[in-house]
Structure formats: C-alpha cells, structure tokens
Specification:
The protein folds into 3 domains: 6-187, Class I glutamine amidotransferase (GATase) domain (Rossmann fold); 196-382, Rossmann fold (3-Layer(aba) Sandwich); 396-496, GMP Synthetase, Chain A, domain 3 (2-Layer Sandwich), CATH 3.30.300. The chain is 33% helix and 24% strand. It contains 15 helices and 18 strands. Residues 293, 339-340, 342-343, 386, 388-390, 394, 430, 464, 501, 505-507 line the site of xanthosine-5'-monophosphate (XMP).
Length: 509
C-alpha cells in the first residue's frame, strides 16, 4: 500500500484526536504530531496535507505554541482550524485581534461562491464557533471565502492554504465532514487508501518482511489488541509464532481458562505460566498505582525473558500497543499532557533483549476491532471490554491487599454477568468494580458489621479519550448492588461512580 498521509499538528485543542479520527474515517491515514515538529521532519514524511488544530492560546501570548514557519514554504496543502487559522494569518503577515464578543456556539456560514473547500454544500450552512480572537487584517494574497454575522473571515484561502475559524470536526457542524472530505480529496488529491482491508494485507506482508525466518514471542493478554496481534502474526508467519500468556493474578475472574480455550481452537502455539504469587508478593502493601504499574511492567519483561530462554531463541517480541498509547507518550512534551503512564510504552526497560514488533501501533481501538473482525477473531474476544495491562491492580485504591483484590474480582464478575443478562454488556465501553480502604456499617443478621465500600464504574466511550458514565436503569444497578453485598464477604455498601472523563479518568488510579 502506498502510504498517503495527513499530518495533524496539535496545538493543544480538545478536538485534536477527533480531527485525526475523522480523517481516518474518510479513508486517509492521519497522524497527530506535536506542533513543534520541524518543517524538515514533516517534509520527510511526505504528507499529502497538513492540518493545524485549534488550541486554547492566543497567537500574541508570550508562550503560545507556534509551528516552524517554514511549513508554509513546503507547498503542501494546509488547513488551519480555529487557532490554526489564526496561526496562518499571524505567520503570513496578517493580524489577529481580541474581539469584545466571544463567538461561541452555532452560527450561519454564508458561502458567496463555490470554492473547492465547500464543494457540494450550497450557499448557507450551520457551523460551530468557539473563539475569542479573530482575524483583523488578512495576509497578502488571501481572500475571505465564507463569513458569519460576526466573522467576516470565517474561512479564508490563498492557493492551497486554507483556514476555517469554525470547527468542521464536531457534529454541531453538519457539513463538517463534507468540508474535511473536500480538503482531502479536492485539495490534497488523496485517493482514500486507508481501509482496514488494505491495513490487514499490508501489515501481513510487512510482518513477513520484517521477521523473515526468525521466531516471534507474542505477549498475549487475551484482550482484543494482543489477540489481534497474535492472529495477524499467525497469518503472516504461522508456526514461527509462540504466544506467551502469563497470569499475573490480576486478570478478570475465569479469564485465563477462557483465553486458553480460545487459542487452543485457533491452533496457535501458546505457553501458559501462572505467576500470580510472584506478582502479588511484589505488589503487597504498595500504595502508589504508578509504582505498581512499573513493578508489573518490569516483572512482565523479566518473565518473558525467562520464558523465552527456556523455550528456544526468539528475536522478536510482539505487543498490542495502539496509537493512543504512542501518542499519549509522545505528546508528553507537547501541549496535551500525559495523565497516566500507560502500559506497553512506559514499563519497558531500555536494555531489552528483544526487538519490538507492534503491528497495531498506528490504530485506534475501533480500528483494531474492525481488523479483528476481518481476520475472524472469535466474537467473544472482540466484544470483551478493554482491560488495563496492569489489570485489577489499578482498581485497588490504597494499600494493595489480596482481600481487596478478591473483592474487586468477584464484584466485577457480578457486574459483567448482570450487564450481559440485561443486554447492556455490548453497548458499554467498560464495566467494573473498584475498592478502596473506606468501610461503612452494614447489618449482618442481627448485628452491625463494618465492610468495604465497592464502587461500580460503567462508562460509554468510543476511544477512551473521553467517556460518560452510563445512565443504567435502576433495576440493573439494584441487582448488581444486591448481589455484590449478598455474595461477597466483607462488603457492606455499593456506590456508583457518576463522574465522566474529563475531569475524571476511566480507571480510578
Ligand atoms: P483512563 O483511566 O486513563 O483509561 O481514562 C483509558 C483507557 O486505558 C485503560 N488503561 C490502561 N491500559 N495500562 C493499560 O493497558 C494501564 O496502565 C492503563 N490505565 C488505563 C483503561 O482501562 C481505559 O480503557
């Protein structure tokens, strides 16, 4: 597959990922990079176009993010969105001013004449605005190509450089997808090569090429990511793949047996090690979740190295790292801060004996699910909720103890069972319990007894970057609560987490 690529330069806007997703949904590969990437680096990626995202800054603030101005000399089509438009104006000699009227919300865009960017849209359409600054003077050779009542320069262009003051990526701009599509297909001359079919083909040939005759060890967790990696590798290199599945004692209830049964059916070679004691001893009494993450990550690698040595020589280690993991680590220096060290990327020691192979590192989660369907991964894995690499360890608040772990495991199992019974399991992103040190009084027989408070967390999301708590019918919550307090010792209360992301995260730690 010839790679066609749109670079999205991130100026810290809340919609940066959304823009990247939208472009990919339009069958063009898009990559989110920090705004500070040099023009030379960008040019070397040979992009078909560049998008400058929105952001919270003002171009005239002292430390506002500014791109390498040489990107405007590359003769690559550019689309600036909101702050991105202001970056264009500011860089190319126009001026931006702070208006006294912040334009926020819906506005009607008037399009006086048909421009490539607005092809097929007509002369009026609604757009979503969110800005305080506005263009005062256009740079030389630029013209306004659309206006709203408050913004005479709502869209501007000069040759192949375009700017829109509104947000085409949000659903409140009903023709926004058409506008992005026009940018890709009419202005950047994209062909639409990014489909999951083409991804599967090119990824299988790439794995063959990369691995040649060497053996690959695949770190399998049983989740959709690593299982997809395993099946892709199996299709590419057959028996040269050996999967290693380590039970670190932090898996969901019955998970290990279910995963083993599935891989047995797929005829994929798998080595199973139950190392629960080793991991749990390491974690006992550790309070800080980041330390737990690191301990688990490091121990995992040690276990892999041991298993690898015991079972032959493996040059490669395959992992299910996804695009958001890469991005969240890469952007740590950029405007979008890293909140938690996420799995595969953070925990690896530098002196790793393996070379890494990460076939999914370009994909978002829902793209992985599409790939999984295409290569016939069993539905029970595809539909399994995402689960953090450090497992239940990030769902125990305060000191890590085996008692809290066991409560968390059993309660999460009850939640999943009740959701499946009520046909809700498939429509939520994640559903689990977490446990801290807080205890509350309960009634047991005729006596009062202190017991743990278990919190139920059920969220909906499309990519885990944002999430909403699920407004679950009360009777389902009631069943969950009753079963948890009845069936699990030492639990006296059940609460429901009603915080969305942001400001919360999905996992409590
Ligand atoms: P947060 O809690 O950051 O989670 O909103 C977003 C998504 O990432 C998962 N998650 C992790 N996955 N290792 C992982 O493999 C981790 O340390 C980790 N922390 C969170 C989380 O389950 C959710 O789907």
């Amino acid at each position: 597959m010839t790679k066609e690529n749109i670079i999205v330069l991130d100026f810290g806007g809340q919609y940066s990922h959304l823009i990247t997703r939208r472009i990919r949904d339009l069958s063009v590969y898009a990559e989110l990079l920090p705004y500070s990437k040099s023009a030379k680096e960008i040019e070397s990626l040979n992009p078909s176009g560049i998008i400058l995202t929105g952001g919270p800054s003002s171009v005239y603030d002292d430390n506002s993010p500014k791109p390498d101005s040489r990107i405007f000399d590359l003769n690559i089509p550019i689309l600036g969105i909101c702050y991105g438009l202001q970056i264009i104006v500011d860089n190319l000699g126009g001026s931006i001013t702070r208006t006294d009227k912040r334009e926020y919300g819906k506005a009607t865009l008037s399009i006086p004449s048909e421009e490539k960017l607005f092809y097929g849209i007509g002369s009026k359409t609604d757009v979503w605005m969110s800005h305080g600054d506005a263009t005062e003077i256009l740079p030389d050779n630029f013209k306004s190509i659309a206006a709203t009542e408050n913004s005479p320069y709502a869209a501007i262009c000069s040759n192949n450089i375009y700017g829109v003051q509104f947000h085409p990526e949000v659903t409140h701009t009903p023709d926004g997808i058409k506008i992005l599509k026009n940018f890709l297909y009419k202005i950047c001359d994209c062909k639409g090569l990014w489909t999951m079919d083409s991804f599967v083909d090119s990824s299988i040939s790439q794995i063959k090429l990369q691995v040649q005759n060497d053996s690959v060890l695949c770190a399998l967790s049983g989740g959709v990511d690593s299982s997809t990696v395993a099946l892709l590798l199996h299709k590419a290199i057959g028996d040269k793949l050996t999967c290693v599945f380590v039970d670190h004692g932090l898996l969901r209830k019955n998970e290990a047996n279910e995963v083993l049964a599935i891989f047995d059916k797929l005829n994929i070679k798998i080595i199973f090690h139950n190392e629960s004691d080793r991991f749990l001893n390491l974690l006992t009494d550790v309070i800080d979740p980041e330390i737990r993450r690191k301990l688990i990550g490091q121990e995992f690698i040690k276990v892999f190295e041991e298993i690898s040595k015991q079972n032959g020589s493996f040059k490669w280690l395959a992992q299910g790292t996804l695009y958001p993991d890469i991005i969240e680590s890469a952007m740590a220096e950029g405007p979008t801060a890293t909140i938690k060290t996420h799995h595969n990327v953070g925990g690896l020691p530098e002196n790793l004996d393996f070379q890494l192979i990460e076939p999914l590192r370009e994909l978002y989660k829902d793209e992985v699910r599409d790939v999984a369907k295409l290569i016939d991964l069993p539905v029970s894995i595809i539909k399994r909720h995402p689960f953090p690499g450090p497992g239940l360890a990030v769902r125990i608040i305060g000191k890590f103890t085996n008692e809290k772990l066991s409560i968390c495991k059993d309660a999460s199992h009850i939640i999943e069972e009740e959701l499946k019974k009520a046909n809700f399991y498939d429509s939520v992103w994640q559903a689990f319990a977490f446990v801290g040190d807080d205890q509350a009084v309960g009634v047991l027989g005729d006596g009062r007894k202190m017991g743990y408070i278990v919190t139920v967390r059920i969220v909906e999301s499309t990519d885990a970057m944002t999430a909403d708590w699920v407004k679950l019918p009360y009777d389902i919550l009631d069943n969950i609560s009753t079963r948890i307090t009845n069936e699990i010792d030492n639990v006296s209360w059940v609460t429901y987490a009603i915080s969305s992301k942001p400001p919360s995260t999905i996992e409590p730690q």
